[in-house]
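Protocol step 4 of 5: obtain the predicted structure for the target chain.
Materials: sequence only (see below). No template structures provided, no constraints applied. The aim of this step is simply to have a reference model before the mutagenesis design in step 5. Sequence pasted as it appears in the construct record:
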Amino acid sequence: MNAYFVTGTDTDAGKTVITTGLMAAARRRGLTVAGGKPVASGCEPTPQGWRNADALAIQAQCHPALPYEAINPFAFEPAIAPHIAAREAGVALDLPRLAEPMRTLLERGADVTLIEGAGGWRVPLNARESIPELAMVLDLPVVLVVGVRLGAINHARLTLEAIRRDGVRVAGWVANILEPDTPRLGENLEALAHWLGEQGGAPCLGVVPWLDPPDAEAAADFLDLEPLLNDPA
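Step 4 output (structure tokens):
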């Protein structure tokens, strides 16, 4: 079983399109695939309860199929930081309550399991705990999604440093192009490859071009699953 925690350099870095793209790439190989989004804010009401678009996209790539509640156990209406949304909803959001359903997901033993975080690496869960502790308690290496736009190099380097400072291994990174005409794109990608790859030791899993609209199958065409499948851990 290969299992990873997906984080990003910021909100809207493209975690979900990369998560679902990697899942789609695994499905193309005939592998079983599971995905999780432990907490999501920005949800819509449905007859079945609150539903989040990112979590639904992950659910659509799971093979065999999984119930929504197994993927996204905590869903909140406003598109705000999860700890604020939870507080406003009167929900105690803490590490044990988030980790338990994700452990159940991992215990299903899919060939590939991806658990997507919320926002960036340092997003808090409450006044004491943050997203990194979820990756740590689940003992998952990280896939870092770099949203390529102005400031990406700084954000990517800081995030990589923070992940490693927390004692979590980075299994790979993905450059996700967020704008149709990114100035000096080639030079920016070269810098990312240098600082994250050559200096940082993290393999690049792909460079996903600007997609309109973002699409898992399209993203999968640009992603290399091999480093994750051959990951020694």
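Step 4 remarks: The chain has a mean pLDDT of 95. Strands lie at 2-8, 33-36, 39-41, 43-46, 49-52, 74-76, 112-120, 142-148, 170-177, 204-208.
Proceed to step 5.
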